[in-house]
Amino acid sequence: MTAARVWEGADGLRRSLVPIETLEPFVGNPRLGDVQALRESLRRFGQVRAVLVDGTQLVAGHHLVRAASEEGWTHVAVNQHTFRDEDERRAYVIADNGLSARGAFDDALLAEQLRALADLDDGLSGTGYSTDDLDDLLASLRALDVTPPVIEASGPRRENRDPTIREVVLLFNTEQFAQIEIWLGIVARESGTEGTSETVFQGMRIAAQQLNG
Questions:
Q1: How far apart are the C-alpha atoms of 103 and 115, rounded to whole Å?
Q2: Which of 19, 60, 89, 120 qualifies as a cystine partner to 96, CB 3.0-4.6 A?
Q3: What are the tens digits of pLDDT across the range 61-100?
Q4: Does 166 have pLDDT greater than 90?
């Protein structure tokens, strides 16, 4: 008698189920995933996206499979794709992990979404975020939400015909530019986006001095 399959997820994935015990991880996968967070996600949502395999070798979804196994599942849904060779599989493993890691969040929008979810019965369960994370995020946004003081330049100041417009050239690394975008996003939502306001200009100067020394 065939043992019952243990799995939960989207109905459209049922046809793609395979036994977890038949899957082999890609040796050398550098990603360190949060298996516990994935377990919580599976409890709330089930599996709604197939993991990627080439034959029986896992290419994407290593930690989801591990989370499913620790949850007692016997099967997961897979999407089969044949790569040209081992090097091509290796390249995709790096791409799948690296490209997602290079992304960023609009913290103000993230906080808005998390705050809406926090009011639901299930709250933030399975999202990878906690109420403490939300509190910390809101605190950081409140810290940015200030009226910046006017800081005069130490050198000669060029006057423009429109006193609210300035021309500024600043050099930022990726992390610094992300912080500037967060600050400006808040100002834009509060002050509008038409033209370059004095508030935005002063905020850029303050942030640049803090970040660049």
A1: 22
A2: 60
A3: 999 999 999 999 999 999 999 999 999 999 999 999 999 8
A4: no
8 A C-beta contact, residue 19 and residue 74? yes
For helices 198-212 and 174-191, the axis angle rounded to 10 degrees is 160
Ordered domains of the chain (ranges, CATH): 11-101 (3.90.1530.30), 105-144 (no CATH), 151-213 (no CATH)
Query: What is the pTM assigned to this prediction?
Result: 0.66
Mean pLDDT of 23-36: 94
Which position has the token pair 């999407």? 79
Distance of alpha carbon 187 from the chain centroid: 22
Reduce the DSSP state of residue 78 to 3 states and report it.
strand
Grouping H, G, I as helix, E, B as strand and the rest as coil, residue 9 is strand
The stretch 30-53 carries a mean pLDDT of 97
The structure tokens 């089969």 sit at 80
Cβ pair 204, 179 in contact under 8 A: no
> What's the CA angle centered on 169, arms 164 and 172, to 5 degrees?
120
Query: In this structure, what token pair is assigned to residue 171?
Result: 């050099």
Helix-, strand-, coil-residue percentages of the chain, each rounded to 5 = 50, 10, 40
Task: Tell whether the torsion through CA atoms of 159, 160, 166 and 171 is positive or negative.
Answer: negative
Long-range contacts (CB closer than 8 Å, 24 or more residues apart) made by 149-152: 149/202, 149/206, 150/202, 151/202, 151/205, 151/206, 151/209
d(CA 176, CA 156): 27
CA-based torsion, 176, 197, 209, 186: positive or negative: negative
